[in-house]
Write a structure and sequence with these properties.
Shape: globular
Structural class: alpha/beta
């Protein structure tokens, strides 16, 4: 049996003088398709920082395991987890070749250096990832010539280059226009349909695609609800989470929310 992607059990996490998690527990299995949903301040960013190893829980309080290990190297995580965030988009220079950005994912760096070389096998990996992300026709374009949506799909290709066991998408359509967001999520949906595990972190319920099976609803560092999508995304639970009276409807597997006008 494969170890879960991550297991958090009874952990406490501080960020500065603020306690974000207190006796917090959550587990995500390999190949699951999960959305972590909640408003700003819910603890979503802290959860991602724990997974990436940027922060650590209070020692001797609970456990934090990634792929069954209590200790792990960031290099190993890069091999097994593909991460896409809106912030990554600003880490590359406009005059970089777009395809080179995908290659940097093989060495876990941002930007090309004179000392970096790539084998034919590595270049084939990058080509395969770019085809998966639907950007193979843009490989000779400079990064600065691309639209925001195209840049985001190159970042997705960069995350796919190691054929990771889990894709983690942090607010993936932030700052994209509607066509760019739709194109990006269309690729993600195809990946999920082919069996890729995805952890989608978002504050917007409308961003959750039909292929997501499980939703974890968070508020102020705790889990309000965790379960099958339609069981969690109810008017009652979403209204409680966001502090606004909401009306919920479903269309083509997508959850649509509207305010009721009540207080």
């Amino acid at each position: 049996m494969e170890a879960p992607v991550f297991e958090l059990g009874g952990i406490t996490v501080w960020r500065g003088d603020r306690k974000v998690f207190d006796d917090f527990s959550l587990q995500v299995e390999s190949c699951e398709r999960v959305a972590i949903l909640g408003p700003n301040g819910a603890g979503k960013s802290t959860l991602l920082s724990l997974i990436s190893g940027d922060i650590h829980p209070v020692a001797d309080e609970g456990y934090c395991r990634i792929f069954g290990e209590d200790q792990w190297s960031l290099y190993d995580l890069r091999e097994r987890i593909g991460l896409v965030t809106a912030e990554q988009q600003g880490l590359f220079d406009d005059d970089e070749l777009a395809s080179d950005i995908v290659l940097t994912g093989l060495h876990g760096v941002h930007g090309m250096t004179n000392s970096q070389t790539y084998t034919p096998a590595e270049r084939r990996k990058a080509w395969k990832a770019m085809k998966q992300a639907g950007v193979e026709s843009l490989i000779w374009r400079d990064y600065g010539e691309l639209s925001s949506g195209e840049r985001r799909r190159f970042l997705l290709a960069r995350a796919l280059v190691h054929e990771p066991e889990m894709l983690i998408l942090d607010e993936p359509t932030t700052s994209l226009d509607l066509p760019g967001g739709w194109a990006f999520m269309s690729v993600v949906r195809e990946l999920m349909q082919k069996g890729t595990g995805v952890l989608l972190v978002t504050h917007d319920v409308r961003e959750i695609p039909p292929e997501i099976d499980r939703v974890v609803l968070m508020q102020e560092g705790r889990v309000l609800a965790d379960g099958k999508k339609r069981e969690v995304l109810t008017a009652e639970s979403l209204s409680l989470c966001y502090g606004v009276k909401l009306r919920v409807s479903w269309r083509d597997g997508l959850c649509e929310v509207r305010p009721t006008g009540e207080r």
